[in-house]
Design goal:
single chain, mainly alpha, AhpD-like
Amino acid sequence: MVNEEIFQEGLNWLQQKDPDALLVIEGMCQGSSSLTKELVSRLYGENYSKNSHLKLKEKLLVVLAITISNGNMQPQTAYQSRLSYLCGLSEDEIYEVCSLAAIFSGFATSLNSMNVIRDSLMSLKSEE
């Protein structure tokens, strides 16, 4: 069961960072409102929006590294790279995560992720 207050907190945080976020996430979750609420609540309401030992930039880098290393999370890699860029990470910082991930997850996985990230960032820049 999703805590409505945490969901709203996560949604507000996310929409401040990326006004198009909910559309992107709903598409990523294939229209499942319960899955979308769970994702927004846990990742954005409980983690990204809260102060903790890690700064936001560090949290973004960790999540991006996880999606890249997994190799089967192209939609999540695309969105997390978009969000990372919107939150102030540079393209070089984002691509460096791919280089580091290649050591553990393999070069093909990282190269595929690099292509996903490139497309995501190019799309974002064309919106500006």
